[in-house]
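Quick start: what a row looks like.
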Amino acid sequence: MTARDTSDGEPFVAELLFTDGLPAMDDEVGYRGAVAARAAGITYRQLDYWARTELVEPTVRGASGSGSQRLYGFRDILVLKLVKRLLDTGISLQQIRTAVEQLRASGIRDLAGTTLMSDGASVYLCTSNDEVIDLVSRGQGVFGIAVGKVLREVESELVEFEVEKPSPMDELAARRAARSA
């Protein structure tokens, strides 16, 4: 939840003043897989497949064997929803993988000002209106996904769900310890 000012060419980050009701953006807390899937509008099966094929892996806690639960961060769920949107428009999974890698490599903190554009075959990451206009004027951009709009949709989906802090021991070990105590 940041703002970007490019008037002097240097981005600055401004935190939200009020966060009442907004989901946690803390990298130390996460959402279980079922919540992440629901918020992204995908099936749990898709979520599991994308994690196993390393398309979108949970950053809070990955699966570490039987009984463990993946925990997805807010940005993970945003990427899941973006992948879903790109799939819905007919983009190949191979191109989506490239787009996700571009998002990761760019290290963009201000996703609200980012637009994913596509010509149906390739996906382009645009961080300014000039880049979008340039892409469209060359006849390359057919459609775009405003990441900021998707970000707000994910926020509103997650408001009702609880976040979890990962414990140092996996769930199965915690259950065994509770049973033996």
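That is the whole record. The two ends are 43 Å apart (CA to CA). The longest helix spans residues 74-88.
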